[in-house]
Structures
1.
Amino acid sequence: MSDIAIRANHLGKQYRLGALYEQRYRTLRESLGSLFRRDERKSHETIWALRDVSFEVKQGQVLGVIGRNGAGKSTLLKLLSRVTEPTEGEAEIHGRVGSLLEVGTGFHPELTGRENIFLNGAILGMRRTEIERKFDEIVAFAEVEQFIDTPVKRYSSGMYLRLAFAVAAHLEPEILVVDEVLAVGDAEFQRKCLGKMGDVAREGRTVLFVSHNMSAILRLTEETLVIEKGRLALRAPTPQAVDYYLSRGFAREGERIWEADEVPAASLPFRPLAVRLRNPRGEVVNSIRSAEANTIEVEYCLDAPITGLRVGIYLMSMRGETIFTSFDTDDPQVFEQMAVRPAGHYLSRCTLPADLLNEGRFVIGINASSYRVRRYFQDEQALTFSVDITGAPGTQWPETRLGAVRPRLEWTIEAV
Amino acid sequence: MAERVNTNVTYIRPARGWININLRDLWLYRELVYFLTWRDIKVRYKQAVLGIGWAIFQPVLSMVIFTVIFNRFLGVKPDAGIPNEFYPIFGFAALLPWQFFQGALQRASISLVTNANLLTKVYFPRLIIPLSAVAAGLVDFFFSFIVLAAMMIYFGVPFTSRLLWLPLFLLLALLAALAVGLWLSALNVQYRDVQHMVPFLLTAWMYASPVVYSAEVITVSPFWQAVYALNPMVGVIQGFRWALFGTNPPGLSMLVSAGVVLVLFVSGLFYFRRMERIFADMI
């Protein structure tokens, strides 16, 4: 008996482009038509969503999976949870797989909370006796006791989500596959979910955790897979993998450019064009000196005027902790002048003062929103850069200083 | 496709050739059949004032309409040996299995597409979906069966031991619906034309079955009776009427109908299993 939970061997999944995009399904007429005019339609273009992915997961290990959107993470999880089958390669799974590909799968709005717990539990592969045993625990975890006999269509989205996660979290499979459940829900509930996942891991069960939330990945996993363009790019201890991931995949160093097709339709009329980091000489760089003042600029277009718009940045550490948030209309006077920002092409620029950051790597995220109205666009990992401390305070001692910031404070020393 | 070799290890690899039916997984997930069936029934009658009463009104209303139009206006007669006044119960005996078959097939053929969100998110044996769509009709059948029993008392049709055959005929109707449902539901994943075609198919199928008329209209020869029974509902309906009235015992036609169901069922099962691997990608 080995202690392997998952062994993947050259897994690959090929999709036909036609099947993915313009033609989700065919009609009989089209199919019959293409039978007779075979050469008119070129052979379907295909794409490898995942190729040649091999890895092993030990029992009780919590493995992170990170990668950009469309890199193949979801395909990998779908293969492992048997939703779809591989085109090539094979995998070996020891034990029951519980997947949280999307919480609330199979919830029916007309059914009550109680009914949905049983239905959803059965869909996820639980036995009825198992659900009955855990019923009270699930209801308590979801905090929906009073509404348990109300149809879930009358639930708030928060209640709905809590109930859905509660069922899935009590599944107790040997292998738990989690995909982005934490992207939703309030902070309090996210903490609870993370806690529950930690419990699962402590009980010796295997967890495969896919997330864009780097701080959650860092907190919960020790080792992480980085998937890039359908390939396994790296398997490394999590801090190293996160570092690798964050420093890769940008069109040019020190700059993130959004191509037209990368902009989600939901963000319109706000269209992000680029974020750049410039040193005092105006060069676009991915490494700055702490002792100098540098500039961050956000370039964007407004296709229509926006009322109350604020465009800003987050500065975060590699561990995902926010160091600060700043918006271009933070100054109340500027905000009043800019009450309505007309359509046009803009550059919002700010100065990152000298003697602010400590050495290390940092992440810039951007956000464009109207307070309490709408969030147009957000990318929490638009850009990463590193800080060099040559000339910063205290560098005469070659030791590592803790902390994200390294301000030059005014000291006085008096003999008293 | 994945197959369980023992309870612990699952192998995931590309499917080659024909796939076995994987009864083991089906058995492991047997409770899901129950829950999905129960959901279908529950949801169907939610927010309907009459609720499950519809399971009774639908066949009763059809019976009234058929009796007025076909019996009173057009002069269609029941089987020889059954008095003309018995036409309502003669018709109802056929409507009972027919409406079960019709409802089951309707739900089964669109079942995969309506459950697309499940197919693309979690694994379970896909067969469960058309299976529970068919099974959901059994509750309706049960309620309209009570109506049939009441009518038997009213018309003075004796309760004989022939009635014990009814479960077998019902099973044949269920398998027929499942067999065709397997084909149509899998085809519908790829070709949505199927769901537009089903209502017409069912209308034509009803007139090709002895629902409003007697199977005796096909009296040319045993050969033509056998050809007629290639429609499995012919055997089912004849069986129901025989169990009630004792006329026109189903012999050859029952065998032919059962044979057709078997062929459709086995081929449907294989087609379904073969297409199963692309459901999540195509739907």
Note: Chain B touches chain A through 40 residues (CB under 8 Å).
2.
Amino acid sequence: MTEINHHLTDELIMGYSAGTLPEAVNLIVATHVSMCDSCRAAVESYDAVGGAVIEQTEKVEVSDACLQGALDLIRNTAWAAPQVAPRAADPVIPAPLLDYVGGSLDDVKWRPVGMGVKQAILATSDEATARLLYIPAGVAVPDHSHEGMELTLVLQGAFQDEDGRFARGDIEIADSDLHHTPIADVSEDCICLAVTDAPLKFKGLLPRLAQPFLKI
Amino acid sequence: MFGHSYPVALDEREAVAVEARPQMRDVIGVSERTTKVGSETPDSAATWVNLMLRIRDQKDETAFVEMFGHFAPRVKAFLMRSGSDAATAEECVQEVMATVWHKAHLFDPSRASVATWVFTIARNKKIDALRKQRRPEPEELTWGPAAEPDQADVIGLQQESEQLGEAIASLPAKQRELIEKAYFGDLSHSEIAEQTGLPLGTIKSRIRLALERLRHAMDQK
């Protein structure tokens, strides 16, 4: 495990544990946690709060048919959730993210966004947007604006901005106030998972109509 | 209500359970009381761990029925408070409890109480069935039989979970409600995480240690 210096907030950890975050935010939390045992321990601690809550909640009577149905399911070995064949571990992309990129880094469908920077939007529910960003070594991502929160998790290489230096496993949590110009380290191309919790806004009618088709 | 008797062919299974008991009894100091089906048992974390081990190792349906009696009404309440109607909730309860059975081999008592484990399965079911979304899960830290957790770690974590439960139960009603709302509903987590002062320090370090041991065991493979 690499040393990780930038972690999740308690707010995100609790939301992930409670299961109330948008899918794209769950994705970036699960990806960070795959690389960070300290946040994994924090998530599991909040799960323990969920356990205590469920233990203390008022009960609602369950029918005998419900128990019978459960007994039918446990005797039905075919019912058990289909075991997904374990994918070969990827040195860059942790398991939860692999499912969203189609199997490996080579399967990512990059689209150029200028200056050699590429992105790939991942399919999640539309309450928030997840994208992979590819920033060539030494390149600065143009100042970009976004509404709401932006989370950026480094998967390869490193970048530097007004908030510090972020390397593999580090997550930057920026609100809409932060104008940042991340610059990738010169040593290596930088790959990040970025999540914005508000859908991107586009000016003009045509892009708005095209948005659902292009998934931009 | 839990505590009512389930007429579903339990007698024959009682015999199986009694036969199986000697190996599993006293795993973490639980008495033979655990084999009494359908009767009230103290809600101790150790009781549920032993039932989980009986499910995992012996496919013990009697243990399952006892688990169902305790957790199904709570899972149903959780789902209904999260916005499900009663019929959907019962359907989900069946699947949650059956998942507990089929995934018993993944339960790690040095990292979670049974209530916590059931909660995570119920939460995932809620996201899947009620919110119709996928739930990205962290990369699995699997362990083989060789890496069975140390009993002291299991006892420690289970006690820690009970203490956390007691700490939450003794919070002022207003704070406790905030926590419940966070886990049942969609209340903003920022205030909650800051205001409730959840005593998570010790359980977090305990889980952290369990993870370190797991990493260590994986590195040696």
Note: Strands of chain A lie at 111-114, 117-122, 129-135, 150-156, 158-161, 164-167, 171-174, 183-184, 190-196.
3.
Amino acid sequence: MVELGVLIYAVCGAGIGTSVLLKSNADRVLSDLGIEATVRAVAIEEAISPDSLAQILLITPELEGIASDIRSEVVVVKNIFDLSELTQKLSEALS
Amino acid sequence: MRASLFAPGSIAVIDSAESFSEAIAQSANLLVIAGHAKAEYVDRVLANFQKLGPYFVVAPGIAIAHAHPAEDVISPGLSLLKLNNPVSSGATANDPISLVFSLCTPDSEKHIEMLGEFALLMSEQSIVNSLLKASAESVIRQILSH
């Protein structure tokens, strides 16, 4: 897969539920913002791996503790369905 | 069109649950009733919660319980357990929880389209507000089909 622009990981415990929903809405927000980025839905183990190339992690509050002390910038999303929260936090993280 | 996201038997309303894990078990069991998963899946969803905590509380009042794809999943599916009296999950930012969705998928691809549609639906605050207020399965089906 060719990864373009900023690499963002949408994170959840299993990499199939929360992360996929986060990715879906993040893709919509980034497209509206006109930002070229690749969002991948991943499980927490991959997100906190030292080999991770992600610039930004999108994560729910309960997983924040596990994702400390890593290179990626951690963006905590309280409401993954709230496009205005995602828009605000992604614009800040990418500015 | 959107009502097809939720198979017959996959939506239920109850007054209350004794604990968040009981609510998760009942919600995941709707996937079994709807024919999307075998009973073992419910145990794995609960184990996932015991291991990682309520990280799948994803919005105020809303949880989406799930476990990894495995052989106990028959087909991609969503279920919804609505609690008329919300339950505390321990995820303080978004507690208490009234809408306990469950999700299953046999692999990491087959559910993507379904979840994209679900994300689109749940991004509409008016739909979420209506779901939070609804106390009958028929009303919930009507809201989800809008």
Note: The longest helix of chain A spans residues 18-33.
